[in-house]
Amino acid sequence: MVCTLPSRRDAKTGVRIIKHMPFESVTKVADADFPTRWGHFRILGFEGVVANPQPCNENTPAPAKRIEGAVALVMGDIHSKPTIVRIHSQCLTGDVFHSLRCDCRLQLELALKTITEAGAGILLYEQQEGRGIGLMAKLKAYELQDQGFDTVEANVELGYKPDCREFELPAEVLKQLGVHAVRLITNNPEKVEALESAGIRVAERISAAVEPEETFQRYLDVKREKMGHIHEVLEEKTR
Ligand SMILES: [Zn+2]
Of 58, 104, 160, 233, which has the maximum CB count within 10 A? Predict the structure, then answer.
């Protein structure tokens, strides 16, 4: 399967870089009932097979094949109008342990609250711990951050790209769910661009800005300054 993918502009030349979807296949592997404290969902599992993946770390060769997993929590009628979608990257430390090193858990809660209040929507949970570098590498990056590196510098110091994520799998999952237009909860313009380039219309961007805590203020600043994220609460404060 070859599809046209998120195009990005080359930083120097401004020329659009067209990438091609590396997925050999994307398969729904499970679909089950899923009651939660937030409300009643279906829980679906998807697996994407990536042939010849790009290495994420300059010191570690990529495997010949990589299987990427994504979970979709689906609620209500997702077809009659652009549905609310959050693409959330797994953060064990934040999502499970309520870490205050990052804003992930608060964003996850915001997304689940928004979807359940609307009575419809999709939470796509991608197994991409630490912007795709993996849990152990993320903990090593935390150690470096304690020594003064920021979140981007720490990944680079460990040989990783600042962000190893691609957002092809969510777009493919949305298509398989028959969803072609969304209201996307995100602060990350790259996610909007990735979906639109993959043929999913983003009818509205809903802010995922949460009230900053002192413990992750610097993390948010770096995401804004180095990764182009938008954060209305911080922008209001610096105005
Ligand atoms: Zn996090």
Answer: 160
Any idea what DSSP says for residue 102?
Answer: S
Which domains does the chain show, CATH number per domain? Answer: 70-238 (3.40.50.10990)
pLDDT band per the 50, 70, 90 thresholds, residue 21: low
User: Is 163 known to be catalytic?
Assistant: yes
Query: Of these residues, 101, 131, 165, 183, which one is catalytic?
Result: 165
pTM: 0.84
* pLDDT tens per residue across span 128-167: 888 788 899 999 999 999 999 988 889 889 998 877 777 7
Question: Environment class of residue 87 by beta-carbon count within 10 Å: exposed (0-12), middle (13-18) or buried (19+)?
Answer: buried
Check if 205 is active-site.
no
Provide CB contacts within 8 A for 1, sequence distance 6+: 21, 23, 24, 25
User: Ligand 1 centre from 95 Cα, in Å?
Assistant: 7
Q: What share of the chain is helix, strand, coil (3-state, %, to 5)?
A: 35, 30, 35
Q: What is the DSSP letter of 95?
A: I
CA distances from 147 to 103, 135, 140, 182, 219 (A): 21, 19, 11, 41, 14
